[in-house]
Amino acid sequence: MNEKWRVLLISVLTPSGVITAVSLFVIWGYFSRLNRLDVFFEVMNIQSIFALIFCAVILSLLFLLSIFFVSSVFMAVVIPQDVNNLPGYDKMKTNFLSVLMIAGLFPTTFIYIFYYALDLSQGVKDNSAWISMFGIGLMTVVVSALINRKHLEKDLSSKRAEVKRTRRYQFYLGIPLSIALLAHLQVFPLEIVFRNISASDEKVNFWTITGLAFISYMVYFLSLFPGLVYLRMGTHDKMLKKISASFIVSLMVLLIISTKITVIPVMFTHSVIKLSGISDFTVHRYIIKSSEYPEEFFASAIWKKKIIKAEQYYAVSAVSMFTTNQFSFLCPETIVKSYRESWKFNPWDSAFDTTVRHKLQEQAADCVPVSAAAVKRWDISLH
After folding, report:
1. I want to staple 346 with a disulfide (CB 3.0 to 4.6 A). Which of 85, 119, 254, 352 is the partner?
2. Would residue 35 count as lying in a domain?
3. Ordered alpha helix ranges (H), 259-372
4. What domain range is 293 assigned to?
5. E-assigned strands of 251-326?
């Protein structure tokens, strides 16, 4: 039985099988969000686009990982995995990692103090980022020196003066200041998160700030996991093994984060569709043959229909949400706004996602798949 399953898996997990499965999964997610799985079943037979979509999936995934795990990437560079001839470095490395985790609390704290807790001048607010970096940098330098000084000086007691000076610069200034910078790199993933949060209350209150602070730190904390895995692996492990383990952890963490920050899978799918050239999510004018698609197909005013040649051609204003060499999935231009609003999420309201997605699906219900032979994009003025 096991042998049969093994043979079956080998026959299925071929490169072409993986490419097809991944591509279909992304396309299914895209059309499922639009509630137009009827179009998905038409796309299933167009295998020529699967390789293109798969390449876009890889690029989009790498893009997301680079944003959400930028701290982990640089953490593996800033904090050495091992330092020769320093027996106490393992303890110092653990201390540095503890400082790094604690330092992530302070950027959000500074934001709260500068913008909400105290009535500070605009000049102070404008320079809050520099003040925050200076404050956290000073904190990491002082704390790192206090907790690592005993271990470092003990290991350096028998070293040459030049080695002592180099290591002291590295451990008392270089690494702590780099940790302060790493703590501020969380601004990249958090900018994506906060830009798409839709709070139910327009007025910012204490609980809103507390919730945002909690989300900030949890994203920061989880984003450090791949770097922690890399640094905790043995020095005898091969580099490929370390990178593979960190990559797998990154995917798992990204999946966990996506369950609460729902904009991540939406943004991923959007990136795949746009990178592959399937849609640019931009309004265009399309000329359609009346003989194949009578004007009644686009009778609603939302299409902004214009007759080009009576009973032969007419033009509509639309967005092609999915374009292939066989058909274009044309949607009213109003879908662009609904599509962008569907990125919004509210971590405190589980029904919010359903509401915005329902609005998008209402718009998508008016979309029409049109044969590629019957439609032509034409943005040139027809006057």
Report:
1. 352
2. no
3. 263-275, 335-341, 352-364
4. 279-377
5. 284-289, 306-309, 313-323
